[in-house]
Amino acid sequence: MSAKWGRKSGLLIGTLLVTVAMSACSPIGGKKDKAGLNTLEREDSGTLKVAYFNEQSFLMQYGNAFQAMFPNIALEVVSTESVFIAEDPAAEMEKLVDEQQPDVMYLTEEQYSVLAGKGKLYDLDAVVKKDEFDLAGYHAAVIDLLKARGGGKLYGLSPNFGSQALYYNKDLFDKNGIPFPTDGMSWEEVIQLASRFPVKKDGDDVMNGLFQSSQTADSFELIRSIGEAKGLQYADTDAKTLSIQTPEWKSIFQMVIEGYKTGSISMPAEGDSKSGGLMMREMGGASTVSIGPDSMRFMSGQAAMTIDGPMIMSFLGMKGSGGMMTKAATASKDGKVMESPFKDINWDVVSVPVDPTQPDVSGGMSLESVFSINASSKSLPAAWELIKYVNGEQLAKTNAMSSPSLSARTAFKKQLDDKNIDAFYALGANQQSLLQVLPEGFENSFAKLASGEIKKVVEGGQSIDDALGKLQSQGQQLLTQSIMNAEQD
Question: Taking the model in full, what pTM does it have?
Fold first, then answer.
């Protein structure tokens, strides 16, 4: 079984992630302290085994600077590119750790949780205290989520994190005499705001009150997010029961489907809508991000609001947007570069909608990358020094101006033309929803089933009650089968 890893938090932010690990290394000396951990000295020598997406990216982002501090420590980089094309990246990373025995691992949130649960990561609590490493300067929600994923212990540190905010077009609000959204609004209040805008569902001049995240995969995702904000769960793996045919879920279905029908809420497009869209290249040229034309509506002035991560600020013409092209270009079928469709939008952000019963948490938070030490490492001093450097203030200050990600160190938040960047830091992680465990493949299968039934309701082919009845019966069958499959594996 697999946990539900952080919701899609930002414009294809996941495609920019790279993974770090360090392979087998020679023991590195140093001076013993009272805690029994060697202190690495500049003259100490040895080999530190590291694993990253590829050697070039690691050296450019971290390795060269680290070797300047410790010139006698050789870095051996183990590429993890193959991990991310595997069917099960977490299992593949575990296999790499067992075979290569890296000292330091750069992990995704899922890999971190799996390896921590299997005792393969070094507990950092003691060394953090011994070294008086500053955790007070961290966004508290990041540390809380790291510990939650680690079963209560701190097995890694993350220099950045993913979060979402509610973007809004100030000029569209002023034009229509509608008050701006504010921090801490409920989902009902935001959807009511969206319904006040004149909308157009089709054509080149389509207009939505609320455009869903550029990474929204299906029409059920918004419904699920609202339900989870209210503390609702539609599936219980332990009890082996599905509960979607309830008054609470019905009210959410009604609210969202009404928005889909009127066009005040955008309904995610089916199939692949990326053809003919935008392409952006990460700083260093290691990764590219493709964005379909259907995901540009807010950025082209065709939506009053959208919920998304920090990356779309790169498309809104902001300076210091993080190594991305601030003037993106579209690629036509014949390969020619055309002018960007983005408009100069007068925008700002507030915190994502919440439920009054849980006003301080959101399901849109995630760990973009986690640096951890192998529990079996024989080069703990060097491994810890690398972890400290990657998560230290010096690099956080540099990345604040060069990375589209959100710094986990609150002193180095982006400062962008008086925008309300605090909105991305305002809420903690909704651990109830983020840590829910569902059988492998069930979540996607149920979302596909739900999206089909939602479409029938929107098109007038059936009632909400009929849709919920089918989801209850067919969803229960999916859950039962998924659990059986997991138990057989």
Answer: 0.85
Quick one: tokens of 323? 């190594």
Higher-pLDDT residue of 225 and 320 is: 225
Gap between the Cα atoms of 116 and 248, Å rounded: 36
Question: Could you please report the per-residue DSSP string of 95-141?
Answer: HHHHHH--SEEEE-HHHHHHHHHTT-B---HHHHHHTT---TTB-HH
Question: Token pair of 454, please?
Answer: 């939602």
Alpha-carbon gap, residue 279 to 351, rounded angstroms: 28
CATH of domain 165-215+247-359: 3.40.190.10
- Asked whether 168 and 193 are in contact (CB, 8 A), the reply is no
Chain-wide mean pLDDT for the chain? 83
Per-domain residue ranges for the chain? 2-162+364-433, 165-215+247-359, 218-246+439-489
The residue among 421, 388, 69 whose CA lies nearest residue 396 is: 388
Instruction: Calculate the CA 146 to chain-centre distance.
Output: 14
Equal CATH topology for 2-162+364-433 and 165-215+247-359: yes
Q: Where are the beta strands (DSSP E) in 196-277?
A: 208-211, 235-236, 241-242
Tens digit of each residue's pLDDT (9 = 90 or more) over 379-408: 999 999 999 999 999 999 988 877 778 999
Among left, alpha and beta (phi > 0; psi -120 to 50; other), residue 418 is: left
- Rounded to 5 degrees, φ, ψ at 203 are 95, 175
Look at 415 and 100; give whichever has higher pLDDT: 100
Give domain 2-162+364-433's CATH architecture.
3-Layer(aba) Sandwich (3.40)
Place of tokens 């504010």: 182
In the sheet that holds 347-351, the strands lie side by side as 208-211, 303-308, 165-169, 347-351
Residue 400: strand, helix, or coil: helix
Tell me the C-alpha distance between 274 and 290, whole Å: 7
Q: What does the pLDDT look like over 313-358, one tens digit per residue? A: 877 754 433 334 334 444 444 555 545 556 688 999 999 999 999 9
Burial class (CB in 10 A: 0-12, 13-18, 19+), 469: middle
Instruction: Give the Cα separation of 296 and 383 in Å (integer).
Output: 42
Instruction: Please give the structure tokens belonging to residue 230.
Output: 């209210």
